[in-house]
Amino acid sequence: MPPPILSTGLIPTWAEFQVRSNSKVLTKFVGTDYFTGRYANRIKNSTFNIDGTQYYVYPNENNNNDTLHGGPQGWDWRNWTVVTHTTDSITFSLTDFDGTEGFPGEVVSFVTYTLTPYEWHIRMSALSLTKSTPIMLSSHTYWNLDGFGRNDTNLVLNHTFHLPYSGQYIDADNILIPTGKINNIPQGSVMDFWSAPKRIGANFTAPGIFNQCGYGCIGYDNAWLVTREGPSSPYTYDWTQAGPVATLASDWSGITLDIYSGMFPALLTSPS
Model pTM? Predict the structure, then answer.
């Protein structure tokens, strides 16, 4: 059975379709395309220090032991302003004021979506205008490149994933807070997506997969380091021309998702 086609001619590869059909409530961070900020992922104890000043941001996870994706009113909950649009693109802007969710400094962010007949481009940027502040942006789309059209499965475990420059990953504790340790990835191990493209579910029965995505969890919710470097510095190459840092592909639909970035972590979330 081929993947379902919308009236627009597009295959619905994002997860909102499955979530809306299988759940009465569309949960946070799962949908067409949530944009997380001002700091994607977790901040331990909801505190950090910049230039000798201790900041306390609003907690929202694990019994208020950490801050996830910017806090209770992170950017995924906020109203964005359309600042420009064309026939094939639209740009949104958000101004995050000093002290919002406890973060220092005023930050302005722009997100642009561009749609071509066979490609969807997402470009994001943010700039702190007044103070030093942590910023880490992410599109939080959950992808299913089969468009939920397979009769045998609605899961992505048959998708192949490739991280050609990621031979290390960031160690995390039971609630997915980084421990500060960097782990090397042996070829052929459950965390190995660097040596060759591999099905996401290839190692779901291997002992090493248990607790990778948190205590009692089977699957992935991990950050791999991207260690591609230029001739003398990781900042000297043109990341827009140097090839993708991550590739997700489906043999069934023939669709490929390439991710280009100048940043150094790459995250895969695929719990069972």
Answer: 0.79
